[in-house]
TrEMBL record:
Signal peptide extent: none
Gene3D superfamilies referenced in this protein's UniProt entry, alphabetically: Aspartate Aminotransferase, domain 1, Type I PLP-dependent aspartate aminotransferase-like (Major domain)
Name this protein carries in UniProt: Aspartate aminotransferase family protein
Protein family (similarity comment): Belongs to the class-III pyridoxal-phosphate-dependent aminotransferase family.
UniProt-listed PANTHER family: ADENOSYLMETHIONINE-8-AMINO-7-OXONONANOATE AMINOTRANSFERASE (PTHR42684), BETA-ALANINE--PYRUVATE AMINOTRANSFERASE (PTHR42684:SF1)
TM region(s), chain numbering: none
Listed GO biological process terms: biotin biosynthetic process
InterPro entries the record matches: Aminotrans_3, Aminotrans_3_PPA_site, PyrdxlP-dep_Trfase, PyrdxlP-dep_Trfase_major, PyrdxlP-dep_Trfase_small
Length: 445
């Protein structure tokens, strides 16, 4: 196979400079670059040849493990057959097939899929569909979008406006108006070291009633939440919290959006965690595991009442003036269909549940180690929260991440919380390796 350049070649420091890396301390990284040059199954290979056990599925996305032959072949075949096809007033068969397959995996009542290229775009699409839905139903005053503190909904202006990570918001200042936020659901004193869903905190959903009373329901279009907040450190919803949100939305004609960019595709259980939690939202956003991370893609799934409300007006009118040049890209659809086949054939949508007791015990075995102030888990997600170094928030987490990497395990630090989200194909010995690596690091810090 011809290669443009040797991917294992270690670049010179000067040649690293032009690439402005996302969500990275560019100056720190470029002093000590950690480059990954190959991947297979549960492992990455670094530029220095060392193998690294992937404890985070790339970036919460490689759910079936790396470089799956079926996905590689599907992408390759499609690239040889149809490199690109426009999706505006045109189409190609795979996009329709993939949409049909996705709908069949979604909770009952979901009927349609809108494709984009990332989680951020899937979220912005969902927010725009919610606004357009309300307007189409004669509720043009319903323009307010409600997010939640500590939420991450990507980096588009729409997603950022409902996100709740202050450092992401304050750098930009000028965000779309007419938003508000629920409080987050985390309270260490009440729920520290919970296994799975905390039993305290369902009442926090009732804050939605307060926001509705404050703004009036006639101004509120939709509420968006991650069923489990991932990027802010795996905040698991209290028992009955999501059910209460659903009920309040129903009482007031508000759409409920679940951002399942992380929780989808078997991460928590089921194709979507909505099934696992037993709460059916009106709209689901997804990305990441959608193509097993192999080709960028986002998908926004809607229930039939949302789609039907927008299929109105003149029969030849464009019902939703929205879309991307690469919506439903043939290579992404090929990757997605191949990924879905693997998930089904290998029963990966139920594997998180099967592994969960072992995973939970392994995570909670770190209780009592130096600096550990909380441990959270659900499905194949876990977070070990560490006490910050006074005056240096994030430093302990970063140091831990680097030391684990040196020992051959990729574990992500989000602030001072170490998060785990491995490929769903992980075996028990690899679970042990991940948590024992962090254990060794913590004992020697
Ligand atoms: C819940 C959630 N929504 C949206 C996004 C944004 O996805 P992307 O980085 O593909 O734009 C992420 C990314 O981590 C996410 O976790």
């Amino acid at each position: 196979m011809s290669q443009i350049q040797n991917p294992s070649a270690i670049p010179s420091p000067a040649s690293l400079d032009p690439y402005w890396m996302p969500f990275t301390s560019n100056r720190r990284f470029k002093q000590n670059p950690q480059l990954l040059v190959e991947a297979d199954g549960m492992y990455y290979t670094r530029a220095d040849g060392k193998r690294v056990l992937d404890g985070i599925a790339g970036l919460w996305c490689v759910n079936a493990g790396h470089r799956r032959r079926e996905i590689v072949e599907a992408i390759s075949c499609m690239a040889h057959q149809l490199d690109y096809a426009p999706s505006f007033q045109s189409g190609h068969p795979l996009a329709f097939e993939f949409a049909e397959q996705l709908v069949s995996e979604a909770p009952a009542g979901f009927s349609n899929v809108f494709f984009s290229n990332s989680g951020s775009e899937a979220v912005d699409t969902a927010l725009k569909i919610a606004l357009a839905y309300q307007r189409a139903r004669g509720n043009a005053s319903r323009v307010r979008l409600i997010g939640r503190a500590r939420a991450y909904h990507g980096v588009g202006f729409g997603g950022l406006s409902v996100s709740g990570i202050s450092s992401h918001r304050k750098a930009f200042g000028n965000l779309p108006p007419y938003t508000d936020h629920l409080p987050h659901t985390y309270n260490r004193a009440e729920m520290g070291f919970s296994r799975g869903q905390p039993t305290w905190g369902a009442h926090l959903a009732d804050d939605l009633s307060n926001l509705v009373a404050l703004h009036d329901a006639s101004t509120v279009a939709a509420v968006i939440v991650e069923p489990v907040s991932g990027s802010t450190g795996v905040l698991v919803p209290p028992v009955d919290y999501l059910q209460r949100l659903r009920k309040i939305c129903d009482e007031h004609g508000i759409l409920l959006i679940f951002d399942e960019v992380i929780t989808g595709f078997g991460r928590v259980g089921g194709a979507f965690s909505a099934d696992f939690f037993g709460v059916v939202p009106d709209i689901i956003t997804s990305a990441k595991g959608l193509t097993n991370g192999a080709v960028p893609m986002g998908a926004t799934l809607v229930r039939s009442h949302v789609y039907d409300a927008l299929m109105q007006g003149a029969p030849d009118a464009i019902e939703l003036p929205h879309g991307y040049t690469y919506s439903g890209h043939p290579l992404a659809c090929a990757a997605g269909l191949a990924a879905l086949k693997i998930y089904r054939d290998e029963e990966l949508f139920s594997r998180a549940q099967r592994m969960s007791p072992y995973w939970e015990d392994a995570a909670h075995s770190l209780k009592g180690l130096p600096y550990v102030v909380d441990i959270r888990n659900i499905g194949l997600l876990a977070a070990i929260e560490l006490e910050p170094i006074p005056g240096q928030p994030g430093k302990r987490g970063y140091d831990c991440h680097m030391r684990c990497l040196e020992k051959g395990a990729l574990i992500r630090a989000t602030g001072d919380t170490m998060v785990f989200s491995p490929p769903l194909i992980i075996e028990k010995e690899e679970v042990d390796t991940l948590f024992s690596t962090l254990t060794d690091v913590l004992k020697n810090m």
